[in-house]
Amino acid sequence: MNNNDYMKSYGFLGIGAFGGNATRAFEAAGYPCIVANSSTEDLRQLKDANNKIHFTGGSGCHKDRKKSKLLLKEEIDLLINEVRAKMPEISTLFIIASAAGGTGSGMLAAAAKILKNALDINVCPVTVIPGKSEQFKAYANTVELFQELEKLDDMGATFILDNDKHKDKLKINEIFFTHLNALLMNENGSERGCVDRGEINELLRTKGMAIISKLGLDNSDTEKVLASIKTNNVYAPPEPDKVIRYFCLMSAGGGISTEQIYSDLGTPIDEFVGAGAPSTVCMAAGLSFPKGRLNEIRKTAQANSEIIRRNMDSVGDGLFDGDMDFLDAFRAKPVPGGQAKASSLDILNEFL
User: Fold this and answer.
1) Short-list 83, 54, 62, 58, CA closest to 70
2) Least packed by Cβ within 10 Å: which of 180, 245, 263, 308?
3) 6: how many CB neighbours lie within 10 A of its CB?
4) Which string of DSSP letters, residue by residue, matches 297-347?
5) How many Å apart are CA 247 and CA 229, to the nearest integer?
6) Looking only at Cα atoms, what is the longest distance across the chain?
7) How far apart are CA 343 and CA 90, in angstroms?
8) The predicted structure's pLDDT at residue 166
9) In this predicted structure, what is the pLDDT of residue 323?
10) Residue 41 burial (10 A CB sphere; 0-12, 13-18, 19+)
């Protein structure tokens, strides 16, 4: 591919307020993008967005994941057709949505499965988990979303940003764009090796959590590369289980020891290594989902629900009848072999 032709292969769909904001930089850079929301007010804030979808009948979902799914049910064909029309050449679609909100959290897993099924493309979910200052519903929604995400088959790399990693949430979006864009630009190559476009796409097709980092030439040493993957980043912390499928390193300088990195991070089944890059870009793909961090969120949601329940009981009639239902798992029904390909509505009904 010449110049920026590679951009046509990667599309971005931002759902909800976070998704819309995080998509802005990618659209400004030239990638095909669509933003979708149930709130017309949120869409109006995205003045530079060329392709907008408003879910009819919605005026914001107010962290109600069920409402979000019902709105999606009414607009499935519109969403599929818009992606097909506005992104005709993509091979990978990044769907960006908050885990904690309403519109994005409710639609992310269902939309990922539906669009992959309808368009036969690779889909990479991108989400952000709440920090320690959020409220109960944000934690409960996050747990519900990840129950859905872990059951999805044939998804590509999942990028899990963490609001606890930076006090400025918009800065997290900026850093993620800078790092992913550097990976997709794929500027590397010398007699010492080259990471090619096929290897980049293989990384993006790899199921599991993924982490990308970018370091300047002056910071490109083994210790800093390892820290950029494990701690010094905007992602949820990786599990200490040393599970990793692929490791990619496009190096701006010599002296980076992948052997030392693997002794700490885990040994991948394969590595993609290139040199001569303007900055050091690396990606760990096929990592386990961040079970430790997600269980912190689950415990906080559970503790908060018990406090809320006690407060409700103390004033007599509560707002909740029966179970709290904050962890109502959306279990996909198994599809017996030999059946016809599931329709988009069939897939969505698995999440309702």
Assistant:
1) 58
2) 263
3) 15
4) HHHHHHHHHHHHHHHHHHTSS-S--SS--TT---PPPP--TTPPPPPHHHH
5) 11
6) 75
7) 22
8) 92
9) 59
10) exposed
